[in-house]
Amino acid sequence: MQASLRLLNKRRFLPLFVTQLLGAFNDNLFKNAMVLFVVYQVYNDERSETWFSALATGLFILPFFLLSALSGQLADQRDKALIIRWVKAAEILIMLVGAVGLGLIWSGIGVHTIAIPLLLAALFAMGIHSTFFGPIKYAILPQHLHDEEVLGGTGLVEAGTYIAILAGTILAGIIPIEAAAVCIIITALVGYVAGRQVPPAPSLLSAQPIDYHIIRSSVALVRGTMHIRRLFLAIMSISLFWAVGSILFIQFPPLVKNVLTAEKAVASLFLAIFSIGIAIGSVAINRLLRGHVSAKYAPASVIGMGLCIVAFHFVCAIWPPAPEGQMLSLQGFIAHPLAIPLSLCLLGVSTFGGMFVVPLYAFLTTTVEKCEAARTVAANNIVNSGAMVVGSLCAIGLSIAGMSVVMQLLLVAFLTLPCAAMAWKLHKACDGPLCH
């Protein structure tokens, strides 16, 4: 662990770490400030709230599905540090639009006709921003780090990402929405400055034509990656994991408001606990594996995640609602006798999730040639985002069909079983330490 932390002293790692951290913080501050305000201040029924939460999640994820092939090609064909500068400059413009949307919805001006469409457009644009940054943050690591540092660097990026998600999520629940509008602009500006410090990472490939046909290039990229059995198993395992994660994130705001009858600060706390757990899991698995990239703990980790989701379901099912017309404050929630077991269940879900997913991301960038790492991550993003969009649509469909969010938790838990099966096959196929 100490060896991994020493990377924070290196210019070949620290600027990328800070840039990714600020980007994740800004994404989540903006998204959660928007979703929590709309769920608590605009809509007043569980179905509409779940629908909006799922729509916001789906719009953010959709660009990963549509544009990851293009982003992967660019990351392999261009200097990755230069692309970082481009996307961080774009973030400033996107956050200006988002800030206008937050200001309008706070003022009550054109809430449904202007403010919400503007906010969703900015969220979609941030998804595009993240799509082009996504392949770089993993693919640049093998280029800047030594082989024995890649797993530790990946773990730090994952842990830092979820700490940033934690900070953005908590802040979204406690600061006024007008303050959030100012904060997202400032963060985008600082992120651009940090991104300019990332050392050059020129292409390792000879110049090749870039296919700008997003459907054809996406199909070709996925087909060219998924035919390799070990990559197929790793990508499908990660995709099922994120399908589970997306449904959980969609469910949190309406579950907290309508089942736990608690204020938005509690919804923010839930997302924060989830982020803390993944950060803990990211660091813990690196310690267990001692720097070796292996899937041996992945099946047990995802089974543990599923059992914690089941336990979370049962605690929610017996949770007594607050008296009619009242909402639990954050202090009232913490004082509730079931708050600790509920929080521990959620922490278990995310900790096991972090232990599961981090080695698989490291695997994607270390079992292919360095010049192909960005495209491999991009192919993974396409399949991941497709699974998450399907998860979002399932959440919308189940809500329209009248299934409560508490019952949906059980269905989510069952998804961990095929995820465990894929991870077990990956481990067996690679005979312990993942094959190279």
Detailed description of the structure:
The chain has about 425 residues and is mostly helical. It is built from 16 helices and no strands. Helix 4 runs antiparallel to helix 5, helix 5 (about 110-145) packs across helix 13 (about 340-365) and helix 5 runs antiparallel to helix 14 (about 375-400). The model has no long low-confidence stretch (mean pLDDT about 85).
Computed over alpha carbons, the radius of gyration is: 21 Å
Assembly type of the shown chains?
A: single chain
Name the helicity range.
Answer: over 70%
Count of alpha/pi helices: 16
Largest sheet: none
Low-pLDDT stretches are none
Mean pLDDT: 87
Structure classification: mainly alpha
User: What form results from the Cα inertia axes?
Assistant: globular
Q: In percent terms, what proportion of residues is strand?
A: under 5%
Sketch the topology as an H/E string, one letter per element: HHHHHHHHHHHHHHHH
Q: Kindly, what is the distance between the CA atoms of the first and last residues, rounded to a whole number of angstroms?
A: 24 Å
According to DSSP, the number of beta strands is 0
Task: Give the tags.
single chain, 79% helix, globular, mainly alpha, 436 residues, 16 helices
